[in-house]
């Protein structure tokens, strides 16, 4: 039976909180302290949530029902009323804040935006790239309120990148600036994002596909040339050899940890947070006998307890970089012809030509699954078939690498 004002006024507290239902999801929660609080339970995105509408009698029965109907309308549009409520409160707080409020400084707004992106589950390398772009913008924008920042403040940063022929980076800086200012606009700190004025400042950039050597004879010569590279550490050369067998994305390879290796099952399980974009599950790489032997060789070459590929240079505590491994490939004569990433194209091209199922190849490359429902279980999809495929691929790599 729906609530009425008489029932509400006659409610008395008990030792434990209790509910009294109204209608269409609205109810009051009566606390032992005597507080009578309006609540509504709802589901959105498969999750159960509870929104608060305030306390009775400050919020009347009529007001509470109006708020319930507004929330139901938001849910019908696919919006989360709790988030809308939080955003409204934040906008009101910003509007009342004094102009000296540090919360509105670029320094703090950009960091809040980065934290939001990280909470959304961006891969570590993606989040790291965002931080690098923000640091480039910091040189011109630190200490300024977002309300006072205009396109002219950002142009010097973009001009530096363009002058250095870093067109892709200039476009990325412009894009990240726009994202941070979109965030500020969403929270009511600015009325209009100034980034749109920069759309024609930076030349357009077309991403270049990674060149790759895919024929078996050419690939074999590449591997032999790399094996004989001078001024290269054995650990770095082993990393490139392993890449030829597992064809991961460069950051997925070099940032590997020993805890991800299951020696008995011969599997490398790369956590979702280390994968490109926002994968819903880990990526499983079956390890051939050749891959296991290279990993054991690497483990015996250094004593780092966590990183598979710790940096070679003294004083650097993180992993080695894909750029450093690319330098080796370029140094032996393959600049503009092959990169660390190119091993993925070599494997994809030849595995398909060898007659392996294209779905197995795509799963091993960890390419994005368009169907998000299927993506939730793709980490182990075709694992038995991929295990056999990876073994055959290692045989191809070893045969090609033998001295002819």
Structural write-up:
The structure is a single chain. With 404 residues, the protein is α+β, with helices and mostly antiparallel strands. Residues 370-377 have low confidence and may be disordered. It contains 16 helices and seven strands. β2 and β3 (36-44) form a beta hairpin. A four-stranded antiparallel sheet has the order 1-2-3-4, covered by helices on one side. It has a three-stranded antiparallel sheet with strand order 5-6-7.
Chain-wise SSE layout:
Elements: H1 5-9, E1 18-21, E2 26-30, E3 36-44, E4 47-56, H2 61-76, H3 81-96, H4 106-119, H5 124-141, H6 151-163, H7 167-186, H8 216-227, H9 234-246, H10 250-254, E5 261-262, E6 267-270, E7 283-286, H11 289-301, H12 322-334, H13 342-353, H14 358-365, H15 372-375, H16 383-401
Antiparallel strand pairs: 1-2, 2-3, 3-4, 5-6, 6-7
């Amino acid at each position: 039976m729906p609530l009425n004002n008489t029932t509400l006024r006659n409610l008395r507290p008990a030792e434990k909180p209790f509910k009294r239902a109204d209608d269409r999801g609205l109810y009051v929660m009566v606390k032992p302290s005597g507080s009578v609080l309006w609540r509504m339970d709802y589901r959105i995105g498969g999750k159960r949530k509870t929104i608060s509408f305030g306390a009775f009698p400050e919020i009347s029965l009529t007001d509470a029902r109006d708020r319930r109907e507004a929330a139901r309308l938001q849910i019908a549009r696919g919006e989360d009323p709790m988030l809308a409520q939080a955003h409204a409160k934040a906008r009101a707080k910003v509007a009342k804040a004094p102009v000296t409020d540090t919360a509105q400084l670029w320094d703090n707004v950009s960091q809040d935006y980065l934290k939001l992106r990280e909470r959304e589950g961006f891969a570590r390398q993606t989040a790291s790239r965002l931080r690098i772009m923000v640091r480039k913008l910091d040189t011109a924008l630190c200490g300024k309120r977002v309300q006072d920042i205009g396109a002219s403040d950002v142009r010097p940063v973009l001009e530096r990148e363009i002058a250095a022929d870093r067109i892709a980076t200039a476009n990325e800086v412009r894009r990240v600036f726009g994202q941070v200012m979109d965030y500020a606009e969403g929270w009511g700190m600015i009325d209009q994002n100034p980034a749109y004025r920069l759309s024609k400042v930076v030349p357009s950039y077309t991403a270049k596909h990674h060149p790759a050597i895919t024929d078996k004879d050419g690939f074999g010569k590449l591997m032999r040339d790399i094996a004989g590279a001078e001024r290269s550490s054995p650990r770095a050369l082993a990393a490139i050899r392993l890449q030829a067998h597992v064809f991961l994305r460069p950051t997925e390879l070099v940032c590997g940890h020993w805890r991800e290796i299951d020696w008995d099952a011969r599997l490398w399980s790369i956590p979702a947070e280390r994968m490109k974009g926002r994968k819903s599950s880990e990526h499983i790489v079956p390890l051939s006998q050749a891959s296991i032997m290279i990993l054991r060789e690497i483990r015996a070459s250094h004593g780092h307890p966590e990183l598979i590929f710790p940096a070679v240079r003294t004083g650097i505590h993180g992993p080695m970089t894909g750029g450093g491994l690319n330098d080796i490939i370029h140094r032996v004569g393959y600049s503009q012809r092959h990169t660390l990433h190119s091993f993925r194209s070599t494997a994809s091209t030849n595995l398909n030509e060898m007659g392996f199922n294209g779905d197995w190849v795509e799963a091993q490359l960890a390419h994005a699954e368009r169907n998000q429902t299927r993506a939730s279980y793709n980490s182990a999809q075709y694992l038995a078939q991929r295990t056999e495929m990876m073994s055959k691929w290692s045989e191809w790599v070893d045969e090609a690498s033998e001295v002819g």
